[in-house]
Amino acid sequence: MSKTLLHVGIDIGSTTVKVIVLDKNQNVLFSDYQRHFADILKTLTQILEQAEKIMKSHDITVMITGSGGMALAKHIDVPFIQEVVAATKVTKLYYPEVDVAIELGGEDAKITYFKDGIEQRMNGTCAGGTGAFIDQMASLLQVDALGLNELAKHYQVIYPIAARCGVFAKTDVQPLLNEGVAKEDIAISVLQAVVIQTISGLACGRPIKGNVAFLGGPLYFLSELRQRFIETLELDESQVIFPKNSQLYVALGAALSSIDEQSITFSELIHRLKHVKSAETEESARMQPLFETQEAYESFKSRHQDARVGRCELDTYEGNCFLGIDAGSTTTKVALINEAGELLFTHYGSNQGSPLQSSIAVLKELYQRLPKGVKIVNSSVTGYGEALLKAALKVDIGEIETVAHYKAADYFCPGVDTILDIGGQDMKCLKIKEGNIESILLNEACSSGCGSFLDTFATSMNLNISEFAKTAIKSKRPVDLGSRCTVFMNSRVKQAQKEGAEVGDISAGLSYSVIKNALFKVIKLRNPEELGDKIVVQGGTFYNDAVLRAFELLSEREAIRPDISGIMGAFGAALIAKERYVKGEASTLLDADALDSFDMQTRSTRCGLCSNHCLLTINKFPSGERFISGNRCERGAGKSKDDNALPNLVRYKYNRLFNYKTKELEEAPRGTVGIPRVLNMYENYPFWATFFTRLGFSVVLSDSSSKAIYEKGIETIPSESVCYPGKLVHGHIMNLIEKNVDFIFYPSLTYSKKEDSKANNHYNCPIVISYPEVIKNNVDELREKEIPYYHPFLPFDQKDKLAKRLYEIFEDLDISWTELYDSVDQAWKELERFKEDIRENGEQTLLYMREHHLKGIVLAGRPYHIDPHINHGIPEMINSLGMVVFTEDSIAHLGEVERPLRVVDQWVYHTRLYQAASFVALQDDLELVQLNSFGCGLDAVTTDQVHDILARQSKIYTTLKIDEGSNLGAARIRLRSLKATMLEREKNHFERYLVDNIYRPVEFTKEMKQHYTILAPQMSPIHFGMLQEAFRYSGYQIDVLPSLDHGAVDEGLKYVNNDACYPAILVVGQMMSALKSGRYDVNKTALLITQTGGGCRATNYIGFLRKALQDSGLEQVPVISLSAQGFEKNEGFTISYSLLNRAMQALMYGDLLMTVLYRTRPYEVEEGSANALYEKWEQTCKHALKKASHRTFRSNMKKIVKDFEDLPIFNTRKPRVGLVGEILVKFHPTANNNVVNVVESEGAEAVVPGLVDFLLYCAYHSDQQLMLGSKVSKIIGESLIQVIEWYRKPMKEALEKSSRFTGPKTIHHVAKGAEQFVSLGHRTGEGWLLTGEMVELIEMNVKNIICMQPFACLPNHVTGKGIIKELKRAYPGTNIIAVDYDPGASEVNQLNRIKLMISTAFENMPVETEIKVKAKSKQEPNEIKGLVTT
Question: Are 67 and 1387 in contact (CB under 8 A)?
Answer without folding.
Answer: no
